Amino acid sequence: MDTEGSARLRSRSKRTEDLDIRVSGVSASSSGSSMSQASSSSGSSTHLNVVPPLPAGWEACTDRRGRTFYIDHMSKKTTWQRPSATEIKDNEQIKRYSMNRRTVGMSPPTTPTYGPALFLQRPDFVSMLHENEAALAAYNASPIVKHIVHRIRKCGEPTEKYENNRDFVAFVNLFADDTQPLPMNWQASGRNPTVFIDHAARRTTLIDPRLPAPAIDRKRGRSAPPTRRQNLDKNGNLLDLASRTAEIALLVEERLPELAPKIRKKLRLIERLGAVALARLANDVDLITAISILDSDDQVVSSELEEKLNHFYASLHRSGYGKGPQKIKFRFSRSNLLNDAFEQILAADPVALRRARLSIAFDDEEGLDYGGPSRELFYLLSRELFHPYYGLFEYSAPDQYTVQISPHSHLVQQELQWMELAGRVLGLALLHRCLIDTFFTRTFYKMLLEQPVTVLDLQEVDPEFYRSMMWIRENPVDPSLGMTFVVSEEENGQVVEKELLPNGAELEVADQNKEEFISLMVKWRVERGIQRQSRALLRGLHQIIDRDFLRVFTVDQVELVLSGSREIDLEDWRKNTEYRGGYYDEHVVIEWFWDRVAQMSNADRLKLLQFVTGTSSIPFEGFAMLRGSNGPKRFTIEKWGEESALPRAHTCFNRLDLPSYPTRHILKAKLHTAIMEGINYAIE
Predict the structure, then answer these.
(1) Pick from 303, 242, 310: which is nearest to 274 by CA?
(2) Which of left, alpha, beta for 482 (phi over 0: left; psi -120 to 50: alpha)?
(3) What CATH number has the domain bearing residue 25?
(4) Relative to the CA of 114, which of 97, 507, 536, 569 has its CA 20 to 30 Å away?
(5) Domain WW: where (predicted)?
(6) Do 324 and 451 fall within a single domain?
(7) What does the alpha-carbon distance between residue 317 and residue 523 come to, in Å, rounded to a whole number?
């Protein structure tokens, strides 16, 4: 026993030397007793100072300088302050109480759990944006900020991806409350820009962490009174809601039908009493809900399309469309895709096409169709079937790449069967949520929806016809012109006259009936030479999707559902760009230019393309086949102009005159001004 005890003491002594400390007590109790004795023998006070023992698990030690410190073996921590059992017990009770009550402490959190991405994705973010005048102005002034916010809200992209964009960072920081202290372990450093340091997470960010957090949702017997809404415009004047009551009523009827009767009564009251009624109803929950629809116009448009799509596909699913369980299997040859589609898709039973699922395969390419081959089929097939080369469709104008049914399609053999195939392809693409690589004219989309065409729809398709009809509408009809309800057109090489209505040759056009004349002329212009083809295409479309399901969409919406957005292939654009005047692909100004284009949203790229070429459409073949005044003409950038000048466009030649700017920031600003206000500058 003595030998083992000596060994243990030597081992303990060795460990003490290594730690450079001397153990002042073998146990907590002995340490406490010795300190108590020392205190009583050396103290001059008449009272006996009894030092309580250390709590269980604690040990008192001294370092080489004779300073006493305390070790907590349970939490593996050290401290210079002597702990007491009462204090430890109180701390444990506080911890347990905090865990049970889930109370919020007065000190800020160690690191914020509510980051900028969650803030931007808040359901009430649009309302907050409209309440923050500075943020709203910054949002409306920057298309880039709009694009970034959309990507974060709709696609869930991280904010870190865009922290190098100063406009976006400045926009988000406009919501931060800089009157509040930073969260615990956060520090702000520097100015212009201010960097925020999170010491706990060991990271830095340019975005202020003091963004407003969502209110805690507590259950209560009754709802809290609504915040008093200040119905003011940007100049601080009372909003003239009386002039928008009809618009609000229509939106409420569509989106809040259960509240519509009550809100209509309040809107009528506003129409009669004006500002008095507004003041009386300032805190009315129903009216605030209705007005908020106007505040979130962009969000409503997007959510409206999403709701329509969800309703559209839910209705199709309930009706058994594309549900299966049977499958229709198609196998196509890439080299003979158009003829294979003509033979196989037209030969399939329409009812089976409507109800079955698709399974697509290409020759010599084995694989399962989980959507990829189907998407590729409609992409490739649409590029051929709707291509003007085959004669069924034509470009709507020499400088436009939207297509429409060609009046000369009757020259194609079996043109009606081909048109029926086109209708089936459009229906199948809609049914199976596959995009096509084609954009049609507005009149074509109206034909799909069976909506009447107006003269405004022909403004881009036939500008000359549009101007003629508008002149008739806006000016008195001169009887001496002898205009009647007759139109001249060419048939089989001969010009013939056709009456727009029975006995039209005997009915003169006057101010009283000119609107009817314009309407009949528009109908004739749209249907000229393509009535039979249009009926065949609609027949094929309705064999797949019943017309009643399609009427839920507007013209713009059906274009998005069929063709998506007009995404620009930046690599193809740059590869098919020519340079003049000393510029070349690696020139520093050209590098700045393409870097700026890469930072743009797709919408802004389309505006740039519109500015330079006169159209935002892209040909089927890509940028290599951009059209000029007399045939294909590639996008060209030429060095021209002083550093103070704006870029200049020559739309006939697809050429951008770009001065050699000294910095990328000047190039960015000048290019932005030219694109946004280019109509007022030199565009030749």
Answers:
(1) 242
(2) left
(3) 2.20.70.10
(4) 97
(5) 52-85, 180-211
(6) yes
(7) 36
Pick the catalytic residue from 61, 155, 434, 652: 652
Sequence-distant (6+) residues with CB within 8 A of 553 are 308, 312, 449, 561
| DSSP per residue, 503-538 | TGGG-B--TTTHHHHHHHHHHHHHHTTTHHHHHHHH
Q: Please give the structure tokens belonging to residue 128.
A: 């907050």
Distance of alpha carbon 476 from alpha carbon 343, whole angstroms: 55
Boundaries of domain holding 533: 304-476+511-553
Beta-carbon contacts of 447 under 8 Å, excluding residues fewer than 6 positions away, are: 453, 526, 534, 537, 538
Q: Which of 593, 587, 594 is nearest to 572 (CA)?
A: 594
Q: Which of 205, 232, 257 is the last residue of a domain?
A: 205
- Phi first, then psi, for residue 520 (nearest 5°) are -70, -35
> Of 323, 429, 332, 425, which Cα lies nearest the Cα of 375?
429
Cis peptide before 212 (omega within 30 of 0): no
* Whole-angstrom distance, CA of residue 151 vs CA of residue 158: 9
From the number of C-beta atoms within 10 Å of its C-beta (0-12, 13-18, 19+), residue 73 rates as: exposed
User: What is the phi/psi pair of residue 658, to 5°?
Assistant: -120, 110
End-to-end CA distance of the chain: 108
pTM of the predicted model as reported, rounded to 2 decimal places:
0.47
DSSP single-letter state for residue 389: G
| Cα–Cα dist 78/93, whole Å | 21
Annotated active-site residue 61? The verdict is no
Please give the average pLDDT of every successive group of 10 residues along the chain, which has 684 residues: 44 43 38 40 44 77 78 74 66 45 41 71 79 84 82 80 86 87 83 83 86 56 38 40 66 71 80 73 70 53 68 85 84 90 92 88 63 72 90 84 90 94 94 84 92 86 88 88 86 81 88 91 90 95 92 84 77 93 94 93 82 70 71 88 89 88 92 72 38
CA distance 387 to 375: 18
Burial of residue 230, with CB atoms counted within 10 A of its CB: 0-12 exposed, 13-18 middle, 19 or more buried = exposed
Instruction: State the DSSP H helix or E strand holding residue 656, giving kind and residue range, or none if neither.
Output: strand 655-658
Q: Which residues contact 452 (CB under 8 A, 6 or more apart)?
A: 446
Among candidate residues 276, 246, 296, 33, the one with its CA nearest the CA of residue 139: 296
Same domain for 435 and 536: yes
